[in-house]
Design brief:
Number of helices of chain B: 5
Largest interface: A-B, 30 and 25 residues
Largest sheet of chain B: 5 strands, parallel
Number of strands of chain A: 22
Strand order of the largest sheet of chain B: 2-1-3-4-5
Radius of gyration of chain A: 62 Å
Radius of gyration of chain B: 13 Å
Strand content of chain A: 25-35%
Number of strands of chain B: 5
Oligomer: heterodimer
Distance between the termini of chain B: 12 Å
Order of helices and strands of chain B: EHEHEHEHEH
């Protein structure tokens, strides 16, 4: 061993040794493959990491040609040979190479190899190659490629248009969908701004809005804007975007999507219009229209409904119907009503009546028609109810019920009155009649008294009978007893009695019959009453000595007219109309010269109506009156 | 001729009695209830006519007629009914339907009635 004495040389040598050691340490411990080959490819040196990786001993590698060691994929070998040739023959530099090498387990590992040419005196001595495992990088690259692919697919297949603008709002990217939406090729759009595609006013408006958004670098959603299609048509876009920022947070631009909502808006507007129209019908309806969901919450109610309830629409929507708007006592009943409908125990339209509770706390009675609303699959969507306010009707019904009750009481009273009044009259009239006809030695004065009792008793009887008769007619409890009879004969039978009455006032009654053989089907009793009543009036109001004529006129078609003609004072025209009404008398009641109930002619009218005929009067003041009634020869309903 | 007058109202009974007595020489018996009437008819032998009020407490006039119709001895005794209900009223007409089934009822007279009317009806039933 040569002894080095010179200190400087010693130091330099130490430096070299130190450098050599340092290099060796790095060479052996680095995680990369380091291999040094001569210009023929023979391995001169190789680091520890390499033989660990290849699973071979250093002596198996050193001195061997690296290309013949089966360390590479076969396809890579010609490439490498050509590379070396190029380097040696043409003097080229060796670029970075990506290769795959086979490890001890037979797995190929991607590596990136950088090779340095080692020269000595200008001649190629060998090559130093450092190869780094790039498995992770490769994987990452693969992933990136995959996701890029994915996004590309998305961008190109989505129905939305995807774009990017720079910080000046100029398009830097436009996906191909733009062609479908606005008619432009992507390349026609690049360099333009979104505002170039809008009508002027719209551009101004949107520029203002977008300016605010971009100022704060905000994300924005569904910004609606009108654009002009290349063909001139208007297109409504809905734009959403996110800002693109650099690492310092400076705005680089925006990236986003545009969706064509023109069609949707047209449909929406049409729907809205239809809905508005429906709402108008809905609100002008005079009944409550109520839509409940199956949980009985209010989905919809019209103006009338709100009006009756006394709430505004917003106070009502979404509320539970039963708990809020039905009186406590009726809730269970109403719920079971709806349940029957929902479970379809009641089919079609359900009718129910019940109270609702207004905001004021008042109950209103509503008549409801409920039905189910189903979708196409037959599932129950909602309950549709229409309700009419029958509060007044309900009250009226109860009033009618009360009135019926009163009417029944009145009937009961009348029946009792009939019996209780008529029974004593039987004795008064009967006994006074017997007494006045008795040949007795009674003082004429008393005889006169008895006569008065008899006359007054008769009058009273007469009044009671008339009042009862009117009541019976008015309540429909008077019956008609139809029989066939010869009218002329019947009237001439009456004539005897009529003359007895008339003679008392020195009057006479005559008949004038135009059709003697006429057979009438009617109620004899009632016709006789008619004639009696008319005659009674003629006698009452006519002058002494007058002649009263009963005319039976020649029948016309199915009708016969009977007249009672007097020679009385006549009836003023204004009175002729009301003469057949109840309690009508020509003179005011306080100074009336003639007594009576005012029911005589009214009863006549009731009778004629009942018999299906008409009654009337012809009269001229000072020239007498002619009362007439026209009756069907056969009762109308009996006709075939 | 023997006539049975039946009414729970005493004054009416007396009026009827006076009226008949004044105009005829018929012999008159009186009953103040339906029950008494039926007893008298059974006890006193056959009457030529029964003048019978409809409205009476307990056994009313219609019931009396029914029982008479069902009785072999009494079913041929004629009856003149007295009614306070108007003859033209529906209530009366409906009852009349029943009377028609009651063969004993020959006629009806409505209160209050004139003596002349009463006697006319009596005579018609008795066949004079």
């Amino acid at each position: 061993m040569e002894v080095i004495k010179d200190k400087k040389t010693k130091q330099r040598l130490r430096g070299i040794i130190d450098g050599e050691e340092k290099f060796r340490t790095i060479f052996e411990n680095v995680n990369d493959i380091i291999v040094y080959v001569d210009k023929y490819g023979k391995i001169l040196d190789i680091n520890k990491r390499s033989y660990e990786l290849f699973g071979r001993k250093p002596e198996e590698l050193i001195g061997k040609n690296f290309l013949k060691l089966d360390l590479f994929r076969i396809k890579d070998i010609p490439k490498m040979i050509k590379l070396f040739k190029d380097v040696i023959v043409k003097g080229k530099e060796i670029p970075l190479m990506e290769l795959e090498i086979e490890d001890k387990k037979g797995k190929f590992i991607p590596v990136e190899a950088s090779t340095k040419i080692i020269k000595k005196n200008g001649k190629i001595e060998g090559f130093l190659t450092i190869a780094r495992d790039i498995t992770d990088r490769k994987k990452a690259e693969e992933k990136l490629k995959e996701s890029e692919e994915k996004f590309r697919n998305l961008v190109e297949t989505t129905s939305d248009w995807i774009w990017e603008v720079d910080k000046n709002g100029v398009y830097t990217y436009a996906s191909p969908k733009i062609k479908e939406i606005l008619g432009y090729e992507p390349k026609e759009i690049i360099g333009k701004t979104p505002f170039d595609l809008m009508p002027k006013d719209e551009a101004k408006k949107i520029a203002n809005i977008f300016g605010e958004i971009a100022k704060d670098k905000k994300v924005f959603h569904s910004l609606r804007n009108w654009n002009i299609h290349k063909n001139g048509g208007k297109v409504l876009l809905e734009t959403s975007g996110v800002p693109i920022l650099d690492e310092k947070g400076n705005l680089l631009g925006y990236r986003g999507i545009d969706r064509d909502i023109t069609e949707r808006i047209i449909v929406e507007e049409a729907l809205q219009e239809a809905k508005n129209k429906l709402q108008t019908y809905f609100d002008t309806a005079g009944v409550i229209i109520l839509v409940l969901n199956p949980e009985l919450k209010i989905l919809l109610i019209n103006a009338k409904g709100c009006d009756i309830l006394g709430y505004t629409l917003n106070e009502v929507l979404g509320k539970d119907w039963c708990t809020n708007f039905i009186p406590k006592g009726n809730r269970a009943e109403i719920k079971s009503c709806f349940e029957k409908l929902i479970t379809e125990k009641v089919r079609g339209i359900q009718y129910c009546e019940g109270p609702i509770l207004t905001k004021e706390g008042e109950k209103r009675f509503i008549a409801w028609h409920n039905t189910l609303l189903k979708n196409g699959q037959g599932q129950i969507q909602a309950i549709l109810s229409t309700g009419g306010d029958i509060t007044e009707l309900t009250q009226a019904k109860s009033t009618i019920q009360q009135l019926k009750e009163f009417d029944r009481l009145k009937d009961d009273f009348l029946n009792i009155a009939t019996h209780e009044l008529k029974t004593p009259l039987t004795s008064i009239v009967g006994l006074s009649e017997i007494m006045k006809e008795q040949k007795s030695y009674l003082d004429p004065k008393y005889k006169n008294y008895i006569n008065i009792i008899y006359e007054e008793g008769l009058k009273l009887t007469h009044i009671i009978k008339r009042i009862l008769m009117v009541t019976r007619f008015e309540s429909g409890r008077e019956t008609v007893n139809i029989e066939s009879f010869n009218l002329a004969n019947f009237v001439s039978q009456l004539l005897v009695n009529l003359n007895i009455i008339a003679n008392k006032r020195k009057m006479k009654v005559v008949t004038n019959v135009e059709e003697k053989s006429l057979v009438l089907r009617s109620d004899k009793e009632k016709i006789s009453q008619l004639i009696y009543n008319l005659l009674d009036n003629a006698i009452k109001y006519g002058p002494e000595g007058q002649t009263i004529t009963i005319n039976i006129l020649k029948p016309e078609k199915d009708w016969v007219k009977i007249e009672v003609k007097d020679e009385g004072p006549g009836i003023p025209p204004e009175s002729q109309k009301k003469i057949f009404t109840k309690f009508a008398q020509l003179e005011p009641s306080l100074n009336r010269s003639q007594e009576g109930t005012g029911l005589g002619l009214y009863i006549c009218k009731l009778i004629v109506d009942k018999l299906g005929g008409t009654i009337g009067v012809k009269s001229t003041l000072g020239k007498g009156s002619t009362f007439y009634f026209i009756l069907p020869i056969q009762p109308k309903k009996e006709n075939p | 001729m023997r006539i049975l007058v039946v009414d729970n109202d005493q004054n009416t009974v007396e009026t009827l009695e006076a009226a008949i007595n004044a105009k005829t020489d018929y012999k008159i018996d009186i009953a103040y209830s339906g029950k008494e009437a039926l007893e008298k008819m059974k006890m006193n032998g056959l009457y030529d006519l029964v003048i019978l009020d409809i409205m009476m407490p307990e056994i009313n006039g219609v019931d009396v007629c029914k029982l008479m119709t069902q009785d072999e001895k009494l079913k041929n005794t004629p009856v003149l009914l007295i009614s306070a209900l108007p003859v033209t009223s529906r209530a009366f007409q409906e009852s009349l339907g029943k009377f028609n089934e009651l063969s004993v009822v020959k006629d009806v007279i409505e209160k209050p009635f004139s003596i002349a009317e009463l006697l006319t009806k009596i005579k018609r039933i008795l066949g004079f």
